[in-house]
């Protein structure tokens, strides 16, 4: 006889929408909505809130079982709040907490460059740059990762809030990383683990460089994984549907000599022409020890990448990995850094995209490798050509002298409709993230900040930053299936 308790699966989804039409950063109210729990035992809901994630005021607010919305008023606009809800029978039984919602419009997510012999981690900060939590990238999977945790954000399930994808770049000579990447839900719970569909690459290198964007314009972002040395310029495209990651196919850049010498692909996604579909921008790594095969400051844009499975073909250089699974782009455009001496000596290009001038089109921002003088270069797509707007940089002369690499990201931190540029830095930066204002403000320096998980004396500290959206202007329901109510 089975004596285990019988559990009934329930759903209690919590969603948010601003109750005011004024800027979110100035609003003093927020509306919470949730799906009703269809169970006769439920008599009411308990709504929890607090100013620290997972730490709520007591007692909770009790609401009738027929209530599915609640407005919090007179909130401090400079304080970040956190909300969750339970369904209860009014006696001794209650569901688990629902997913947690924050009043903050965004969070900072920082992928850490781990020290020698250390595991990587990801830092989560609220919109005021206060530490919320750190996540160890080894706690979810028995994989020792020493090196960078590369992060990308995007809405892969269409709920209006960004998920997080973590890729891994190992230190030289370390154990192969198995082609793994991790997907976190919008509440930072583990949503899925992904693996590159190329066993030979995974067993010899396995580095993964993630990007997220809506390639086909269906409202759900796809994931593109760039590969490290030995990847032959291949990038795999994944979709998330019905609770699982699925490989759609592969894309590549035709540069066999460079990739045979060990070149890596750094993908990024954004809509540079306003057609509602994100374009794939690919940057290229420096090849250490091979001065005759440098990327030369080049990056390329694949426009009109089709995810139509009927158009898949097989590439000649990688028949084994992408047999009949090569995605086709309608057009290819290349760009070149204007700093000729850097391009000829090093030439590494690290792309990101975002709308920095508020025109509805994304610009391309290129970060540089060490010896990059703390600069990023900005490009605009005009009449079929990539045009340099100019180079801007962080005002850290000591760091720029000894390192100078830049790891850019774009996000609207002041909620004015124009993206600011976040500049992650490398060794010798003491965990500083630089910030540059948008194009209208002339890319002037804003207040930089130091990652909260930086340790004094840890000279190798450095972060790969992104800005994670927490909600859109209209309610968006989570896909988390919880909680449970005991019978």
Automatic annotation (TrEMBL):
<dbReference type="InterPro" id="IPR000413">
    <property type="entry name" value="Integrin_alpha"/>
</dbReference>
<feature type="signal peptide">
    <location>
        <begin position="1"/>
        <end position="25"/>
    </location>
</feature>
<dbReference type="GO" id="GO:0007155">
    <property type="term" value="P:cell adhesion"/>
</dbReference>
<dbReference type="Pfam" id="PF13517">
    <property type="entry name" value="FG-GAP_3"/>
</dbReference>
<dbReference type="Pfam" id="PF01839">
    <property type="entry name" value="FG-GAP"/>
</dbReference>
<protein>
    <submittedName>
        <fullName>Fibronectin type III domain protein</fullName>
    </submittedName>
</protein>
<dbReference type="InterPro" id="IPR036116">
    <property type="entry name" value="FN3_sf"/>
</dbReference>
<dbReference type="InterPro" id="IPR003961">
    <property type="entry name" value="FN3_dom"/>
</dbReference>
<dbReference type="GO" id="GO:0008305">
    <property type="term" value="C:integrin complex"/>
</dbReference>
<dbReference type="Pfam" id="PF00041">
    <property type="entry name" value="fn3"/>
</dbReference>
<feature type="domain" description="Fibronectin type-III">
    <location>
        <begin position="14"/>
        <end position="112"/>
    </location>
</feature>
<dbReference type="InterPro" id="IPR028994">
    <property type="entry name" value="Integrin_alpha_N"/>
</dbReference>
<dbReference type="InterPro" id="IPR013517">
    <property type="entry name" value="FG-GAP"/>
</dbReference>
<dbReference type="InterPro" id="IPR013783">
    <property type="entry name" value="Ig-like_fold"/>
</dbReference>
<keyword id="KW-0325">Glycoprotein</keyword>
<keyword id="KW-0732">Signal</keyword>
């Amino acid at each position: 006889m089975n004596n285990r308790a019988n559990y009934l699966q329930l759903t209690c989804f919590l969603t948010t929408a601003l109750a005011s039409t004024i800027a979110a950063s100035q609003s003093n109210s927020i509306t919470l909505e949730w799906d009703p729990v269809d169970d006769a035992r439920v008599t009411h809901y308990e709504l929890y809130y607090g100013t620290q994630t997972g730490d709520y005021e007591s007692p909770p607010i009790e609401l009738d079982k027929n209530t599915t919305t609640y407005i919090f008023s007179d909130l401090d606009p400079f304080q970040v709040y956190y909300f969750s809800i339970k369904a209860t029978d009014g006696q001794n039984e209650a569901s688990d907490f629902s997913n947690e919602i924050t009043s903050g419009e965004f969070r900072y997510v920082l992928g850490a460059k781990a020290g020698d012999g250390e595991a990587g981690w990801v830092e989560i900060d609220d919109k005021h740059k206060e530490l919320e939590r750190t996540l160890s990238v080894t706690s979810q999977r028995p994989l020792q990762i020493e090196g960078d945790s590369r992060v990308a954000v995007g809405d892969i399930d269409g709920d209006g809030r960004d998920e997080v994808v973590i890729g891994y770049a190992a230190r030289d000579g370390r154990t192969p990383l198995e082609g793994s990447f991790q997907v976190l839900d919008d509440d930072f719970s583990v949503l899925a683990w992904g693996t590159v569909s190329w066993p030979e690459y995974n067993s010899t290198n396995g580095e993964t460089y993630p990007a997220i964007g809506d390639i086909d314009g269906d409202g759900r972002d796809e994931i593109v994984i760039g590969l490290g040395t030995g990847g032959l310029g291949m990038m795999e495209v994944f979709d998330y549907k019905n609770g699982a990651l699925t490989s759609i196919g592969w894309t590549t850049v035709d540069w066999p000599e460079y990739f045979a010498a060990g070149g890596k692909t750094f993908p990024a996604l954004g809509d540079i022409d306003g057609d509602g579909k994100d374009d794939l921008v690919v940057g290229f790594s420096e090849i250490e020890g091979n001065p005759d095969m440098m990327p030369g400051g080049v990056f390329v844009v694949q426009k009109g990448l089709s995810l139509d499975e009927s158009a898949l073909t097989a590439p000649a250089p990688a028949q084994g990995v992408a047999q009949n699974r090569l995605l086709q782009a309608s057009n290819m455009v290349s760009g070149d850094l204007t700093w000729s001496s850097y391009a000829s000596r090093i030439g590494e290009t690290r792309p990101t995209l975002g709308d920095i001038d508020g025109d509805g089109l994304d610009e391309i921002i290129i970060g540089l490798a060490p010896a990059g003088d703390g600069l990023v270069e900005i490009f605009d797509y005009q009449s079929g050509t990539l045009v340099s707007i100019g180079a801007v940089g962080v005002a850290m002369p000591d760091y720029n002298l000894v390192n100078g690499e830049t790891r850019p990201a774009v996000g609207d931190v002041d909620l004015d409709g124009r993206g600011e540029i976040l500049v992650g830095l490398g060794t010798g930066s003491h965990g500083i993230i630089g910030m540059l204002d948008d194009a209208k403000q002339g890319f002037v320096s804003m207040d930089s900040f130091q990652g909260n998980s930086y340790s004094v004396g840890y000279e190798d500290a450095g972060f790969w930053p992104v800005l994670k959206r927490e909600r859109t202007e209209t309610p968006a329901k989570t896909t988390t299936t919880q909680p449970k109510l005991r019978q």
